[in-house]
Automatic annotation (TrEMBL), chain A:
Family listed: Belongs to the GST superfamily. Phi family.
Residues passing through the membrane, by range: none
Limits of the GST N-terminal domain: 1-81
Protein name: glutathione transferase
GO annotation, cellular component aspect: cytoplasm; cytosol
Species per Swiss-Prot/TrEMBL record: Prunus persica (Peach)
TrEMBL record, chain B:
Name of the protein in its database record: glutathione transferase
InterPro entries, A to Z: Glutathione-S-Trfase_C-like, Glutathione-S-Trfase_C_sf, Glutathione_S-Trfase, Glutathione_S-Trfase_N, GST_C, GST_Phi_C, Thioredoxin-like_sf
Record-stated family: Belongs to the GST superfamily. Phi family.
Cross-referenced PROSITE patterns: GST_CTER, GST_NTER
Keywords: Cytoplasm, Detoxification, Transferase
Documented EC number(s): 2.5.1.18
Origin species: Prunus persica
Gene Ontology terms: biological process: glutathione metabolic process; toxin catabolic process
Reaction catalyzed: RX + glutathione = an S-substituted glutathione + a halide anion + H(+)
Keyword Cytoplasm: yes
GO cellular component: cytoplasm; cytosol
Gene Ontology MF: a single term: glutathione transferase activity
Subcellular locations according to the entry: Cytoplasm, Cytosol
Top-level enzyme category: transferase
Length: 214, 215
């Protein structure tokens, strides 16, 4: 029984894919075309009532929300593949803290850039230069704090790679490539070293083979 | 050594307080006045570089982000007080799913309403009727999904109270009380029963009674 992952072409599902590769868990992927609105089809909404990807099916267990799925597999296969939750409850607390920072401080402005730069041009709706400018400024301030943090520890939660770092991979990949905002990383020495490290992991290179919708 | 919680007056720190009460963990609180900008003071930024509440200090361990802190204490004291993570890894997966739904689907439109309806007048800022209307519509659609879910299980992650439910308490309290949007709960039978249940827990009543709310 392999895990089924819906929507592998998109960024959030790639959080799940890279986690499964790190944990050495077999999976297969089921394409969902957001541009055709397949995530709003009644059959899909039965599985994921909010109409978003990713979604996994593992036997008769269904789970959605990328950051919930990666926590589930990191815990279920704790002693298989790469440990992604730290060694102690205190380390896991810091993994949780930086996962939350990713979700609430880092992701929203970056997601605005993705919507207004990549999705707007793909879907032919107008992008808002004010939102782009404000989001870029916000993201810069968040990355200033990352720079300070990463001057003291190799990874976000400490000197170990974890879900907190992994969760940054898919959208930061857009930032340095398709969005043309690589300077936000390159201009910050420790953020840049961290990005080079995590984006060169074999797991991430393998996941990039699933392509992007843009 | 008791846990110190910063900013008990506000909603996000109350996620932590109600979790600590459920887990029977002693704590003390340290007030932070957001209206005076105390969360941007250099001393506070050393603890929480993003300038937000809550933060906890537990001996020499410091942690921020309310939903990280509640996960930490629910796990650290797994067998003390109320179990908040479910019994199996699969149950915990569903707790995580609904915690994420709370954070990513439920909270953003509700937070917009809190900022526009409660914080804006307090800070003398104009509120934006368009944001209010759009946020209310979005939140209504999210609550429609909750209604369907709660028609099948008593709580969000299953037939057990968990962090997923607990995480909704502080901001839903604003929704049901301070913002005159109680209809959003009352008009949905199962959501309404769920809200009555969780908001009547002694832990939540204790937190409200001891720490009040800014609105």
């Amino acid at each position: 029984m392999v895990v089924k992952v819906y929507g592998a072409a998109y960024a959030s599902p790639k959080r799940v894919l890279v986690c499964l590769v790190e944990k050495e868990v077999d999976f297969e992927t089921i394409p969902i075309d957001l541009f055709k609105g397949e995530h709003k089809h009644p059959e899909f909404l039965k599985l994921q009532p909010f109409g978003t990807v990713p979604l996994i099916q593992d036997g008769d267990y269904t789970l959605y929300e990328s950051r919930a799925i990666i926590r589930y597999y990191a815990e279920k296969y704790k002693s298989q593949g790469t440990a992604l939750l730290g060694k102690t409850i205190e380390e896991r607390g810091l993994v949780e803290q930086w996962l939350e920072v990713e979700a609430h401080n880092f992701h929203p402005p970056l997601n605005n850039l993705v919507l207004h730069i990549l999705f707007a041009s793909a879907l032919g709706f107008p992008s808002d230069p004010k939102v782009i400018q404000e989001s870029e400024e916000k993201l810069g301030k968040v990355l200033d704090i990352y720079e300070e943090r990463l001057s003291k520890s190799k990874y976000l939660a400490g000197d170990f790679f974890s879900l907190a770092d992994l969760s940054h991979l898919p959208f930061t990949q857009y930032m340095v490539t398709l969005l043309g905002k690589e300077y936000l990383i390159k201009d910050r020495k420790h953020v840049s070293a961290w990005w080079n490290d995590i984006s060169n992991r074999p797991s991430w290179k393998k996941v990039l083979e699933f392509g992007t919708p843009f």
